[in-house]
Design goal:
Length: 532
């Protein structure tokens, strides 16, 4: 009996010992060997960067670096130094491509247009969303297209892309016009009620309501009252998730039952229920109606795609989860970024009244001095050349997207470099769009005429113009967004004149997207039918 006991105990100790040894080996590999291996591969190719310290990498230095604006201190040109000043500081020290570290994670900053071109052309699934950035976004976005990688992302992309072809967008134009007219009436009332016939309006508030209304009706066949709660709760989640600790790569502790995490998961549950109610209502309508009477919007396409796909295990086993996640992603991406793009464009026009008048004159000429309606005539939209260049220039200087990030999921060659699996690439878009070597000495100036002959002639390296992201993961709804911007801006500029309010403080901040910290306040006045 004693011998048997000793044998059992000996076997147990050997098992425990093997587990401990295996755990130590795995820990050493993850904590020491893998980061060193990745850095070695990059450094051997002549790429340098700030020296990391164990175990936090360059996080301490990132937190200590402060903005260093130029002597002019023009708030409309120097604000990008306040966003992530370490990017600019390190670029000056190490060049347009450099290596840095946040804890165990190794990052490659990319500001070299030739390399960006190769990233743009890379269509493999081996270049995906960074997993450590997307994990904290799980409550908000689930496994929707903004977070997913691999085959699940590919499935969602193929499902959505056809719904944003111009032939489909034309069917949404009436909704865009109708929703914009509601905002116009609201602003006219504000102006009329003021004795001086001028109103100070925080425009991004109403523009978000406008784009939310459009996405609700155009893509989900529901009015804004149904989507209002969804947008409100997504906004609360967005604010909670826009913390520097996520970008720095700190350990995600959302699984601990903290007050913040409990609130986040409560919001997630409520948003999921609201989206599911809209989905269930549509399914009931489909059963009650004949097949020929089914709607043909994006929600219907999502329902049919999730029901008919049998190739992906995730979709088959979690059909409702896939539908909810994809809808949440469309709600968020389809409204917020477009509203901000229009907001910043109106600021640019308010700061440059000569361009505001040029756009207004073009609208009057195109629509024969009458209110710009009937946008389904594609030739009308195509004739708005000045407005198009204004939008392109505004997206260059104040595009809603701040970063383009990728995780290298398999060893690959991009340009002249070999990138190892596990490294993360970062593109800081505001800096990229102000690169003097690419855009010229007037890179920080608002000059829409640079786009007179298209993007290809606007700069030396057009592949470095990425307001909608880059590569196969660029924004799928950019045609929808541009069309929406043209229609909304045409109607607003035809009806109103815009000036910057003396109460406006220019302070763009990062909150998952580029936003005005203190609200964008403009003075709005009504213009007569002649555009004066």
């Amino acid at each position: 009996m004693e011998l048997e006991y000793q044998w059992v105990m000996g076997k147990l100790w050997w098992t425990v010992g093997l587990i401990v040894i295996s755990s130590v080996i795995i820990l050493v590999e993850k904590v020491l060997l893998k980061p060193r291996r990745i850095r070695s591969v990059i450094e051997k190719q002549g790429i340098n960067g700030p020296k990391p310290s164990f175990p936090y990498g360059n996080i301490s230095e990132m937190q200590q670096i402060r903005p260093q604006p130029s002597a002019s201190a023009d708030p409309y040109q120097e604000w990008i130094h306040s966003l992530f000043p370490y990017f600019q500081t390190w670029k000056q020290r190490y060049g347009s491509v450099y290596l840095y570290s946040t804890g165990l994670k190794q990052h490659l900053y990319v500001g070299k247009p030739e390399l960006i071109k190769d990233i743009n052309l890379h269509t493999s699934l081996d270049l995906g969303r960074p997993s450590y950035l997307s994990k904290p976004l799980m409550p908000m976005l689930g496994n929707g297209i903004l977070r997913a990688n691999g085959q699940l992302w590919s499935f969602q992309r193929n499902l959505i892309v056809p719904e944003f072809f111009m032939s489909k967008i034309k069917n949404m134009i009436d909704i865009m016009e109708e929703s914009t007219l509601t905002i116009i009436k609201k602003w006219e009332t504000c102006i009329t009620e003021n004795k001086e016939k001028i109103a100070e309006i925080v425009i991004e508030v109403d523009l978000k309501i406008l784009t939310e209304d459009i996405i609700s009706k155009a893509c989900f066949g529901s009015d804004y009252t149904q989507g209002k709660q969804i947008f409100s709760k997504l906004k609360d989640m967005q604010a909670a998730l826009s913390k520097p600790s996520i970008l720095f790569g700190f350990l995600n502790l959302s699984f601990f039952p903290t007050k913040e995490s409990k609130e986040m998961w409560r919001l997630k549950k409520e948003v999921d229920e609201l989206v599911m109610n809209i989905v269930c209502n549509r399914e009931i309508q489909n059963r009650e109606n004949n097949l020929n009477e089914k709607r043909s919007d994006l929600l219907q396409k999502i329902l049919e795609g999730a029901a008919n796909d049998t190739s992906l295990k995730d979709v088959v086993q979690n059909k409702n989860r896939t539908i909810i996640d994809l809808c949440k992603n469309i709600y968020f991406a389809g409204s917020e970024s477009t509203a901000l793009a229009i907001t910043w464009t109106l600021l640019m026009l308010a700061l440059h009244p000569e361009w505001q008048q040029r756009v207004r004159s073009e609208i009057l000429d195109t629509f024969d001095n009458s209110s710009p309606r009937f946008f389904r005539d594609s030739t009308k939209l195509q004739k708005l050349k000045v407005l198009t260049t204004v939008i392109q220039e505004s997206l260059r200087l104040y595009g809603p997207g701040v970063f383009a990030t990728r995780e290298v999921l398999a060893d690959m060659k991009l340009g002249e470099f070999v990138l190892p699996k596990g490294i993360f690439t970062w593109l800081f878009i505001p800096s990229l769009h102000r690169d003097i070597d690419n855009w010229g000495t007037d890179a920080t100036k608002f000059k829409p005429e640079r786009f007179d002959n298209g993007v290809s002639a606007a700069c030396k390296y057009p592949q470095a113009y990425i307001p909608f992201g880059l590569g196969s993961r660029s924004c799928l709804g950019q045609n929808f967004a541009i069309t929406q911007m043209k229609i909304i801006l045409s109607l607003l500029i035809y009806n109103f004149s815009f000036e910057v309010s003396p109460n406006y403080k220019h302070f763009p901040v990062y909150n998952m997207l580029l936003m005005p910290k203190y609200g964008l306040k403009l003075l709005v006045t009504k213009v007569d039918s002649s555009g004066k």
